[in-house]
Specification:
This protein is mainly alpha-helical. It is built from five helices and two strands, in the order H-H-E-H-E-H-H.
């Protein structure tokens, strides 16, 4: 869950008025890992109001794009979202489940944040307003492989 919260915060911060990001998971942890908040704060991003949410909270709401971050969610049946929804998978390590000392765990969170930030910047470099859905799908999927 901390991956999606970091992705939401990075998209909201860097995307400002271009995108609206929401994060949720199929099995939310119920808490936001404090290291997720710490590594975001290192970039000047305040995500202290973030909270762990189930994707069921968003069922039936219109979204134009859904990005999955964990491998299990890529194959799960997501809730129904109306309209034509572009889906892409950006598989990312889960720092919440990492086992190590405090320094190693913090390094893991920073690594994941770095991967997510690079992908967010690649997404925001796209001409989102002019790409047709099949091309956007292709671009988003390619970003997930980087």
């Amino acid at each position: 869950m901390c991956r999606s919260i970091m992705a939401e915060a990075l998209l909201s911060h860097h995307g400002r008025d271009r995108v609206r990001a929401c994060s949720a998971g199929s099995h939310p942890a119920g808490v936001v890992h404090p290291l997720a908040l710490k590594v975001l704060a290192e970039l000047g991003i305040d995500a202290s109001d973030a909270h762990s949410k189930s994707w069921d909270e968003f069922a039936g709401q219109p979204f134009n794009t859904i990005l999955t971050l964990c491998d299990s969610a890529a194959g799960e049946a997501c809730p129904w979202f109306p309209g034509s929804v572009i889906r892409a998978h950006w598989g990312t390590r889960d720092p919440f489940t990492f086992t190590g000392n405090e320094e190693e765990t913090l390094a893991c969170f920073r690594e994941v944040r770095g991967h997510l930030e690079a992908r967010v910047r690649a997404l925001l470099a796209l001409p989102l307003e002019t790409l047709d859905p099949p091309e956007l799908q292709k671009e988003l999927s390619a970003i997930g492989l980087s």
